[in-house]
Write a structure and sequence with these properties.
Blueprint (H helix, E strand, L loop, with lengths): L11 H10 L2 E7 L8 E7 L1 E3 L11 E7 L3 H11 L13 E6 L4 E3 L7 H4 L6 E16 L5 H22 L18 H8 L2 E16 L6 H13 L3 H23 L1
Helix pairs in contact: 6-7
């Protein structure tokens, strides 16, 4: 990921939070194959496991699952089966998972109320927040093995619990209770599990940024915040809030130097 110094203000805990708030990642692999494309991507909801939530440096592990019939799954399985010496189902190639915040927006030069009238030296840009995860993936694809069955059972149970409670808010407190995997027929779940494979990624690098106009001066940032607020849209309000938050963070860190 290209990181200008001014945009590289995200800590590991901030990036973990971004992933958990936006768990639909884009899994990208680059696996040489005579049958399937070299580069493939799939949208997959992930869980992020962290042993010590108070840690400022722990990267953690991503867990997900993907349809067995997905060509990306087939390329991964073919690669592993072509290397009998492959260590415990771990892909030789590094994988990438991209997570994006839904809050992003075009920034018009008209928002730069200080620089535009002064010099005119302004151009449009786009504000956004994203995290990129790099690591080695262990693939659980042998539907007959106890290890795969255990991984997939826990995966779908944990993912359902997380999305029902954290995403939907179905906590059972003044709201409906969450849907549970056990609500569906056991045999039905067993059949579905045979048609998915599990992915477990040990994170080796976690990069990300909140590109929220931190490079602009105070007067221009004021104009950007005001401009987004005047759009009178939900996304505009969220953008104004994020730009303000990153400005405050920058000011706070500058005061500590």
């Amino acid at each position: 990921m290209y990181l200008r110094g001014v945009h590289a203000d995200a800590t590991i805990p901030m990036l973990r939070q971004l992933i958990r708030k936006n768990p639909l990642g884009i899994l990208t692999t680059a696996i040489a194959s005579s049958t399937y494309p070299l580069i493939q991507s799939s949208h997959i909801p992930f869980l992020l496991d962290i042993k010590d939530e108070s840690s400022e440096t722990e990267l953690g592990i991503l867990r997900g699952h993907i349809a067995r019939q997905n060509p990306q799954s087939k390329a991964m399985i073919d690669s592993l089966e072509a290397q009998p010496s492959a260590s415990a189902g771990i892909l030789e190639q590094e994988v990438l998972v991209l997570f994006n915040s839904p809050v992003h927006h075009y920034v018009t030069p008209k928002f730069y109320t200080e620089t535009k009238p002064d010099t005119g030296k302004v151009v449009p840009t786009w504000n956004y927040a994203a995290a990129q995860v790099y690591g080695r993936a262990k693939v659980y694809y042998d539907s007959k093995s106890a290890e795969t069955k255990d991984f997939l059972s826990k995966q779908i149970r944990d993912l359902s619990q997380y999305t029902e409670t954290s995403i939907m808010g179905y906590t059972g407190v003044d709201k409906p209770g969450p849907w549970k995997v056990s609500d569906a027929p056991e045999r039905y779940i067993e059949l579905l599990q045979k048609n998915i494979i599990g992915i477990e990624i040990s994170i080796e690098r976690l990069e990300g940024k909140f590109k929220m106009s931190q490079e602009m001066g105070q007067g221009d940032v004021d104009g950007i915040v005001e401009g987004f607020e005047k759009l009178d849209t939900e996304i505009g309000t969220e953008m104004a809030k994020l730009v303000q938050e990153r400005r405050d963070l920058k000011a706070s860190r500058s005061a500590q130097v």
